[in-house]
Design the sequence.
């Protein structure tokens, strides 16, 4: 597992999932709340993955230039960022346009049905 991630599993979970995952969640929230498109979450989270690789290298003697480690970091961070983006985008649509949209679950909204 260490060869795949470029770091020990505990370091990967601590730095990538918890620390940088929190940053990815805030990134998704910020992009959704400012009405920007989802592809920007992907771009920012890839930059965060590079930051995660550097922190693992600088603080925990992990491999900096680990392609599989970078891809694992990027996949986890992009997933967290996109989940946050969708959650806050749905929330924003329902709050901003309550006469037109209603929640259809945690990750979806739908148009309100008109009676008439």
Sequence:
């Amino acid at each position: 597992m260490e060869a795949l991630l470029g770091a020990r599993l505990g370091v990967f979970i601590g730095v990538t999932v918890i620390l940088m995952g929190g940053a990815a969640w805030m990134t998704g929230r910020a992009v959704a709340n400012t009405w920007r498109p989802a592809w920007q979450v992907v771009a920012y989270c890839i930059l965060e993955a590079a930051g995660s690789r550097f922190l693992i290298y600088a603080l925990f003697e992990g491999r900096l230039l680990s392609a599989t480690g970078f891809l694992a970091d990027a996949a986890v961070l992009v997933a967290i960022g996109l989940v946050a983006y969708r959650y806050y985008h749905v929330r924003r649509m329902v709050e901003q346009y309550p006469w037109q949209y209603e929640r259809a679950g945690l990750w979806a909204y739908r148009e309100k049905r008109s009676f008439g």
User: Anything to note?
Assistant: The chain is about 70% helix and 5% strand. Helices lie at 2-5, 9-33, 39-60, 67-96. The chain has a mean pLDDT of 94.
